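Q: I'm writing up a methods section and want to include an example of the input and output format. Could you take the sequence below and give the corresponding predicted structure tokens, formatted cleanly so I can copy it straight into the document?
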Amino acid sequence: MKHLILLAVVVAGAASAQPQPEGYLCCNMRSDGAWISDINYAESGKFIVPAGTPVKVLGYGRYRVEVALPQGRQHLGNDYSRDIAMDAFARRYVLADDPAARLAGWPKKIQDAVTSARVTKGMTREQVLMAVGYPISSETPHLDARVWRYWLWTFSEFKVHFGDDGTVLGVRTDADTRMRVVME
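A: Here is the clean output for your methods example:
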């Protein structure tokens, strides 16, 4: 019994030792009011929590980070990027500096694409991240890849293609998804 109690104390101590960053949401993320998944599906009933929203990490659970947002407490789910340690996963989404300052300095078309959670030709990787979130690491393990895979929902994949200069060349997807994720 002593060993079980000691194990519980060690596990609890390890969980509380993880960093609890506070700052701003990196990117537009979709929420149902309680859960924000790293796949960022645009399912019915979900709303966008915009990039730059104040956020504080409150704690960690199994494949989730509990966060406080102005909308209330929610869980940021590490549903498809489980190869990333939870503290690194939290730091992906919680930035010390408000991304809204960078957004304000970008051309109007890029600002409009980001604020509407869409991708447009000429965007940088940073701008795509802010607009539609991180691609899940199980499908796009390296952010310097020429193609990032995303899904609007289960059967609605879109691929963002980058050129040698690191800017978007185009998006490959079906016509319906294109209307929802691409700003021409």
